[in-house]
Amino acid sequence: QLQLQESGPGLVKPSETLSLTCTVSGGPISSSNYYWGWIRQPPGKGLEWVGGIFYSGSTYYNPSLKSRVSLSVDTSKNQFSLKLSSVTAADTAVYYCARPKMNYYGSGTTCWFDPWGQGTLVTVSS
Amino acid sequence: SYELTQPPSVSVSPGQTASITCSGDKLGDKFVYWYQQKPGQSPVLVIYQDSKRPSGIPEQFSGSNSGNTATLTISGTQTMDEADYYCQAWDSSTAVFGTGTKVTVL
User: Fold this and answer.
1) What is the tally of helices (H) and strands (E) in chain A?
2) Does the N-terminal peptide bond of residue A9 adopt cis geometry, omega within 30 degrees of 0?
3) For B97, which of A46, A64, A119 is closest by C-beta distance?
4) CB distance A49–B49 less than 8 Å?
5) pLDDT tens sequence for chain A (126 residues)
6) Contact A62/B86, CB-based, under 8 Å?
């Protein structure tokens, strides 16, 4: 059974870079057809997609965050990572890693998320 | 950018049926997904591709999608179904989540 676990600093200073890693267990990160992604949730608010990366490096990003987000994959460690630069208090959130499932069908593409990691709270504060 | 709108809250009596709507422009042309999130926990997929249930999800959860509205229906609602529910779709290479609905069983 696939499991995902986030790790990284719980406190980041404003204007610095937030860095998180997701460790995947129960299967190789280089499996075909699977992207690996990040979703965040500010305290008391809804879910916001951050972006996703295929093991070969192709990516999808939330347009509102694209200029500040960088995703990477380390197949040797079965991990993928998120970097979010120039953070502000608005970036305070629980960050979840998840496996996006992409499905290509006649009239387009669809994507959903399953499973999810347990999430990690990142607070941006001086 | 694409938006999905849900009612902030839905209340239901134990054993009754709860219906949660998700509205978006021509939503019926896309696949819709539903997630359940209990307090302090990560979201769990309960419906995928409009109406399919993942393995392990009870039959009480069902979904539909047509026109501009998708609906998640919870039949025979129990106190353990109290949670936030989010719809999600994929539009222009972007995942879009709904605003979320808090289901209260009382």
Assistant:
1) 0, 11
2) no
3) A46
4) no
5) 899 999 999 999 999 999 999 999 998 888 766 899 999 999 999 999 999 998 788 899 999 999 999 999 999 999 999 999 999 999 999 999 999 998 888 878 899 999 999 999 999 999
6) no
Question: Which residues in chain A are closer than 8 Å to B41, comparing Cβ atoms?
Answer: 118
- Count of pairs with CB atoms under 8 A, one residue in A, one in B: 66
Residue B64: both structure tokens together: 């539909």
Provide the 3-class DSSP secondary structure of residue B79. helix
Nearest Cα residue to B37 out of B103, B95, B90: B103
Task: Report CA torsion sign: B82, B62, B75, B22.
Answer: positive
- Print burial letters for A77-106: b (CB count within 10 Å at least 16), e (below 16): ebbbbbebeebeeebbbbbbbbbbbeeeee
Tokens representing A109 are 């593409």
User: Do residues A4 and A22 lie in contact, with contact meaning Cβ atoms separated by under 8 Å?
Assistant: yes
Task: Give me A1's structure tokens.
Answer: 């059974």
